């Protein structure tokens, strides 16, 4: 028979010397998947920055935090390495397990040699934890074994035995929704997790393990914006939260480019190689469509043009893939804490035929910029045999970009 396991409590009378954070990021985030974006939710871009990066940075803003360890999926090691986070408090990641409980235990084991006083356990998909919330959790641990943020349930809650008929109505005054980070005395929660591993029971969170182990867990006031990204629509809600923090303004940029044909056997358009009787002439891969689109994005954020950032006189860009230029423009948007709303590209050419390649073009642009493919439009038209385009001497492309940026008054 399962038994409660009591653990000793030794209250911390003063500010703890070390406070570690475990960020649980070992899941595959399949429920948050969207068409055209297969990335796990913790690595998807949120207003230009990966969710996991935002979550980690939220804790790095607190001087009270002394160590952070991310628990990741073994298949995501390269993705994690691309976050490029530089802080001495951020420890090397450890691999998680098939369950959240197992992943938290892996994080606890990694921290054990450091003997932290307290540990905060955080979901990777909650990127909006604030310093004030972290402080409330830490303060509560001065007199309690554990602490977690909660919000009172405002909806009327019904219980049903068969999922169809209502059996009873719960007293919502006694119901609270739990959030993370959940904080504990390190030794106590580590011991509780070790013991919980030996019983046949699915624990829903770390506070439940603490309760089962006989620890006193107190509630502190949670935050409405401390949402957990679970479903595709949560990304739109999360972006609205980011923009609401500082207000936004919409910027529009346009781009135009033209390249002549030269002897060759294929052209690059929107990052897709299309067989043709000629190629486009240029210093890079001469992707006229991506050049126009890059200029549109740079124009929207007031960052000059493509030649300013990638001069054709610089030999390092000779033959370079134009997706590099587009990615750079996207990174500049992210640095400004902006959001790409939509992109529109028009290609004007008599040949080659482009329509069959449009889905692949949209996918390349979306992947390069970390946005959903439904924010990208690529269109093609001819010049009705008129002018140099009509004579098949080259290709023209025009593009527009709509971008939201934080308002600066």
Please, what is the average pLDDT?
90
What is the assigned CATH homologous superfamily of the largest domain?
A: Spore Coat Polysaccharide Biosynthesis Protein SpsA, Chain A
User: Please, what is the oligomeric state?
Assistant: single chain
For this structure, the CATH topology of the largest domain is Spore Coat Polysaccharide Biosynthesis Protein SpsA, Chain A
- CATH top-level class of the largest domain: Alpha Beta
SSE class: alpha/beta
* Helix coverage percent: 25-40%
Explain how this protein is built:
- The protein folds into two domains: 19-244, Spore Coat Polysaccharide Biosynthesis Protein SpsA, Chain A; 247-406, 60s Ribosomal Protein L30, Chain: A (2-Layer Sandwich), CATH 3.30.1330.50.
- With 409 residues, the chain is α/β, with parallel strands linked by helices.
- The protein is elongated.
- It has twelve helices and 19 strands.
- Strands 1, 4, 5, 6, 7, 10, 11 and 12 form an eight-stranded mixed sheet that branches. A five-stranded mixed sheet has the order 16-13-19-17-18. A two-stranded antiparallel ribbon has the order 2-3.
- Strand 4, helix 2 (77-81) and strand 5 form a beta-alpha-beta unit.
- Mean pLDDT is 90; it is low at 1-9.
